[in-house]
Write a structure and sequence with these properties.
This protein is mainly α. It is 62% helix and 7% strand. It has eleven helices and five strands; from the N terminus they run ααββααβββααααααα. α4 packs across α6, α6 (149-164) crosses α8 and α8 packs parallel to α10 (259-279). The longest helix has 34 residues, at 193-226. The radius of gyration is 24 Å and the shape is elongated.
Length: 295
């Protein structure tokens, strides 16, 4: 005879859910308590929702900019400790190129305060990042991908955009929300932590990371265009980046959009970026740079 499957209420994973459902049905005090707590949670989440600059994307932010700055100071100390012996001198041509590009980008970036940048000699590291507090790090390995100063502007614009949009502050806030959701799930359903974490990771954290990357792509493209760099070069840079990256992780498993989707968005934004460049009266400068600007 086929083995009889246990009823949902008899399964261990459903005990807490079954008990909670019975309490809701039989106890007015429980219903009032849950309603009040639920109302407070909704108010707390709602009061910490805000729109991201420029793009208007809704996001959850519950930590202060001061906390973000403190995270930046810690990250900067660690970065300087890790790369101190690899930092290029200011008279190195690669350092001068980065400085020249930043000189044009920064007035249109939205960054406030003094900016400090370092070029790290590591030809195997294809990367650049900006730490809160306007600390910019560029690895020499990304220079061949840039190919020219327009390409470098697209990379730096993207990384600066992460900082301008306070993505570190947003990322520091997300664990508070996920911890709350995990706690509620474990209260209502036994042994739900792993399943809930899986749902949160693929339904909230990874999509949120991809949204930040798309936001930085968009802001960085407009930034470089407004700074009189050729926005069409951004498509070439990210195409070269895609060819250099041999991984083929499906988008829903990745923190970044797929290269195909990324390039498609750049193509959609390109007319706006070209218009932004035209508004900045860049015609003479871009023509000049075709002959004299090299990365």
């Amino acid at each position: 005879m086929p083995r009889k499957q246990p009823e949902p209420a008899d399964r261990p994973n459903y005990h807490r859910f079954h008990e909670t459902r019975e309490l809701w049905r039989t106890s007015e005090q429980f219903r009032v308590g849950v309603t009040l707590v639920g109302g407070c949670i909704v108010v707390w989440i709602g009061s910490n929702m805000e729109r991201a600059p420029v793009t208007g994307r809704w996001r959850f932010v519950c930590v202060s900019e001061e906390y973000e700055a403190e995270l930046g100071r810690t990250s900067y100390e660690h970065a300087m400790e890790d790369y101190r012996d690899q930092i290029l001198r200011p008279d190195d041509p690669r350092h001068k190129i980065v400085g020249r590009v930043l000189e044009r980008l920064l007035p249109n970036s939205g960054l406030k305060g003094d900016v400090e940048f370092h070029v790290i000699e590591d030809d195997d590291e294809v990367n650049a990042f900006v730490i809160p507090g306007n600390k910019i790090f560029v690895f020499s390995g990304i220079m061949p991908i840039c190919n020219n100063e327009d390409g470098l502007a697209s990379i730096l614009g993207h990384e600066i955009a992460h900082n301008v949009a306070h993505h570190v502050q947003e990322n520091a806030s997300l664990p508070y929300l996920t911890t709350l959701i995990l706690g509620l799930a474990s209260f209502f359903v036994d042994n739900s932590a792993q399943l809930t974490q899986f749902v949160l990771s693929y339904g909230l954290e990874l999509p949120n990371s991809r949204a930040q990357e798309t936001e930085a792509d968009y802001l960085g493209l407009l930034m470089m265009a407004q700074s009189c760099y050729n926005p069409e070069e951004a498509l070439k840079v990210w195409d070269r980046m895609a060819k250099a990256d041999q991984s083929a992780t499906p988008q829903f498993l990745s923190t970044h959009p797929t290269d195909r989707n990324r390039l498609k968005r750049f193509q959609q934004w390109l007319p706006e970026a070209i218009e932004k460049q035209a508004q900045s009266q860049c015609g003479h400068m871009t023509q000049h740079c075709q002959y004299f600007c090299t990365c």
